[in-house]
Design a protein that fits this description.
72 residues; mainly alpha; 2 helices
Length: 72
């Protein structure tokens, strides 16, 4: 979206108003980005569930443990 003006530089003309085409260009790009994100989510490639972030959590410390015992 930052390069909208660069995309429309070859079409610059003081007689022609390019505001509406620029807005349509931005709207179509946002729509296609939304479709792409929706498809990636449908494929399960976006981290949207808590289980997707489990690898970044620190391991849980165990408050106590048992060891030893009587061997029979």
């Amino acid at each position: 979206l930052r390069t909208i003006n660069a995309a429309f530089d070859p079409l610059k003309d003081p007689k022609v108003d390019l505001v509406l085409p620029k807005l349509m260009y931005a709207a179509v790009n946002l729509f296609l980005l939304t479709i792409g994100l929706w498809k990636l989510n449908g494929l399960g490639l976006l981290p949207t569930r808590p289980a997707d972030w489990i690898s970044s959590l620190p391991p849980r410390t165990v408050p106590e443990f048992s060891a030893g015992g009587i061997s029979l």
